[in-house]
Amino acid sequence: MTEIIIHHYPASPVSEKIRTGMGLKQLSWRSVEQNRLPDRPELFAMTGGYRRIPVMQIGADIYCDTQCILREMERRVPTPTFFPNNGAGLPFALSRWSDGAMFELAFRVAFAPVADKLPAALIADRTRLYLGEQGDLKNEAADLPHTLAQLRPQLGWLEACLTSGQHFMLGGEPGMSDLLAWYFVWFVRERYAAAPEFMAEFPLLNAWVQRMQAIGHGKSTPMTPVEALAIAKAAEPATQEKSDPHDPQGLSPGMKVTVVPITHGGDQPVEGKVLAVDRDTIAISREHPDCGRVAVHFPRVGYRVTLR
């Protein structure tokens, strides 16, 4: 298999989900550290301007969004599995909670108390991305007790998953459900100064944190963005044309489309031609002088595909 390249940066909580996924599967991978702010010219050449992190690259196939990344990792490396209890559908359903309402709470708790100490450009970018154009972290700082009151019982839900003595969220082995919980717990613990006191009432969850830390990140070796771009240019997408006769939008290979997250964060649509489409994912073909032809993969859930 062509080596796995992960575009990320160390402080990214969403990237921590994928880094720990690499550890769970005991994989070796190439680590491309990107800028925290969306000034990533080599990556943008490959993704068509998709600004979210992480992104997984395998040759000239580019995988956006952790839904898509985790699904492809499982397909390529099925053992150890992300679904140890044969419950592949449930974690993807849970991700709509963890990546939505729960992560927004974690963002407020992590950023609001220190908004005046962080670079203004970073605060403006992340506020727009997660809270929308009208977001205001000064208001969020004043509202922190309410936010913590919302976060606390939901952490209690995670604690309750562990009360039967099992070591992980859905049983004795870690899986995707643990990755979904881990990344926002990691975020709060890393960024909220009062996290130790706030989380002290969850002893089972804190013990689970130690088990998740022990999983590690697999074995990574660094690679520069320029090197990753050259790999894409030297390769051809491995993805073959694929149609879905049941697609509600009637999408088929060759159609010109745009793909954009369904959020209020101001993301720019990515343009391309449909290469492969099924119930769960869409891959679009696009070209750029710096990387040649690439296939950019997105999940269907959480993204709007529009015919051009």
Can you offer a commentary on this structure?
By secondary structure, this protein is α/β, with parallel strands linked by helices. The chain has helices at 13-24, 41-47, 66-76, 89-111, 120-131, 137-142, 144-161, 176-191, 195-198, 203-215, 225-234; strands at 5-8, 28-33, 55-58, 61-64, 219-222, 256-261, 270-277, 281-288, 292-299, 303-307. It has a 10-stranded mixed beta sheet with strand order 5-2-1-3-4-9-8-7-6-10. The mean pLDDT is 95.
What structural keywords apply?
alpha/beta; Glutaredoxin; Glutathione S-transferase Yfyf (Class Pi), Chain A, domain 2; 2 domains; ten-stranded mixed sheet; globular
What topology does this entry show?
Layout lengths: L4 E4 L4 H12 L3 E6 L7 H7 L7 E4 L2 E4 L1 H11 L12 H23 L8 H12 L5 H6 L1 H18 L14 H16 L3 H4 L4 H13 L3 E4 L2 H10 L21 E6 L8 E8 L3 E8 L3 E8 L3 E5 L1
Parallel strand pairs: 1-2, 2-5, 4-9
Antiparallel strand pairs: 1-3, 3-4, 6-7, 6-10, 7-8, 8-9
Say what the CATH topology of the largest domain is.
Answer: Glutaredoxin
Give the SSE string.
EHEHEEHHHHHHHHEHEEEEE
Q: Uncertain runs with pLDDT below 50, 5 residues or more?
A: none
Distance from N terminus to C terminus (CA atoms, Å) equals 35 Å
Helix content: 40-55%
The proportion of residues in beta strands is 15-25%
Give the radius of gyration.
19 Å
Given this structure, which CATH class of the largest domain is correct?
A: Alpha Beta
How many DSSP E strands?
Answer: 10
Corresponding CATH architecture of the largest domain: 3-Layer(aba) Sandwich
Number of helices: 11
**Sequence of strands across the biggest β-sheet:** 5-2-1-3-4-9-8-7-6-10
Overall outline: globular
Note the main sheet. 10 strands, mixed
Helix/strand/pairing category: alpha/beta
